[in-house]
Amino acid sequence: MGSVRKPKLGQNFLVDDQARQRIADALGDTSARTVVEIGPGHGAITDTLAGRAKRLIAVELDRALAPELRFRFREQPQVEIVEADVLTVNLGQFAEAEETVDVVGNLPYYITSDILLHLFAAAAEGKLGRAVLMMQREVGERVAAAPGVKDYGLLSATTQMYAEVEHLFTLPPSAFSPPPDVYSSVVRLHFRPRFAELGVDAKGFDQFLKKAFAQKRKTLKNNLQFAGYESAGVAKCWPEELPAQVRAEGASLEDMAALYRALRDRL
Predict the structure, then answer these.
(1) For the segment 20-49, what is each residue's pLDDT rounded down to a tens digit?
(2) CATH number for domain 13-193, candidates 2.40.240.20, 2.30.130.40, 1.10.10.10, 3.40.50.150
(3) Contact present, 101 and 89 (Cβ < 8 Å)
(4) What is the pTM for the complete model shown?
């Protein structure tokens, strides 16, 4: 019995020149910046950024593409090709002195969340400035969604604790080769972690959000009670402006932080 063929690394290469320019432009002035590119592929964006960035580190997992890129940019010392899985790469190592690095990339749909969490870890250490990322449109809409909107969920809340999110534009399948089955969104993240501002610790609040969003159909109170919080304690700590039957997706990060602080201080 033959094995099922898996898509190779989820690769859909950007072939739209206008889109390539718009993505590079969205990073802003990189002449004094270090840029890390995730999954450069055949180098469509790499080629544009190579002439703009002070330093460009392209992280490519594909063993065939990495040597191709290394040969192509061999006479451009500001371009470095790193053959590795980006999830294993310490992005902070590329930040010089007290500078931050910028990130650009086309994120494979099956590890988009993992890559975002990897970026957030670097952002928490103050190592990232901004990122311009391509991702499946459905995920891009979730990342940028506001509280109270259907698409708002754990990924939205987590992303917005670490960064300000802008949805820039949408790309059709024809912008890529081979064309994917879905449209893609290009979003820009300005990394500004809000934990200190909201008076919460990152690890504890991340866990609290996971519990709050655990079951989408349940109310926030029910999710917290299911996670082990006593109903009397939740009621006593409940923010006045928050409706009693609200679901997690209807609560702002400010309200979530207020509830978390009150429950934490009660223990």
Answers:
(1) 999 999 999 999 999 999 999 999 999 999
(2) 3.40.50.150
(3) no
(4) 0.92
